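Human: I'm a chemist; would you kindly supply sequence and structure tokens for a protein?

Assistant:
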Amino acid sequence: MTAQQRFRIFLVGTEFFREQGGIQFVNRELLRVLAEFARETPTDVEVFSLNDPPGGLPAEYELPAGFQWRGFARRKVGMVLKLEQRLWRAQPHLVLFTHVHLAALAGLARLAARRARIGVLGHGVEVWKKLGVQIAYGLRLADAVVAPSEFTRAKMVEVNGVAPEHMTVIAHGLSAEWVNTFQRSARPKSTGCTLLSVTRLVRADTQKGVHVVLRAMPEILRRCPEARYVIVGDGNDRAALEQLAAKLGIAGRVEFRGELSNEGLCRAYQEADVFVLPSQQEGFGLVFLEAMYSGLPVVAARSGSAPNVVEDGVTGILVAPEDEKQIVSAVSGLLLMPEERRRMGAAGRKLVEDKYLFAHFAARWQRWMEEVAPEAVRAARDAGAVSTINEIRNTKLETREDQTQKI
């Protein structure tokens, strides 16, 4: 089959590999989704990453045939010029901008590839507030806008005027790699009294709520003297949080573990009894999925997208943001009631296995592509089927010719 018959996708993101974070994770998972999609649909993918260097792929990461990688090391002009050139030449069927800040380029895509379908992915807090004129215009030009949660979808409609009929919710899922690592990890015996938070500790993310949990710890310890609090993550706010723990007289009951490998993170979940993160700014909350898959009840804030993931009274307990008394009640109650912990933990594990694994994530995105560009997907699959039939036919003819020659 010819290159023109293949389904052509441009995946345009801010960053895939340079740093760790939720957006980078989703971008990498989208690459894996497209690799799965290409197995049944002949597909060419061109990846444009604003922040990653030109050779930004890790040594162990290999793109499938038909995928091209372009990193621009934060050179915005360079990326825009290359993107424009490739849009004119390749005429992709689908252009997906994986961050709303890149939606300003939707006008360029519309001009240079008039038949392309344009998609934009919003993540969380960045789309909960009024966006700039160029970005808002790009969102209006998009054929389809994706949000990871119902809360973020509603915010994009309410605050930024995205047409509801253009919006789709595609929930995230755990990576297959993380699940495999968890299943391979040894399972340390939990103590029955360990709290766990997993988050970046940066000043810009103070609404993650770690400081609120620290302030609640003295009363939690009064009710559950054996309790200890493990915090995984690092950043420029860690020193201030360590000072707060010392000031509250609980430094001996709080452990800051910093950044961990996947193996170390899985062990931390397996050692814990309750996951707590009363964050007010979760666009989805991948750590909630990790905790639930680990069989932990989750204490989260009744804020942002957390209620879309954590079911109050079923897989965890939702509390008012910044309310130390509610955190004390929820956490100490779970620590003192092991049967309740196990019930919620089992419900959370089942929920993730039923809805939030990579297979579910991939199926949701593949269905979205089929709906956004149905004709191009169908044509590529038909051409691929014809090509396969011709290959089989040619192979049989060659086999017959060989047999004839031998006779």
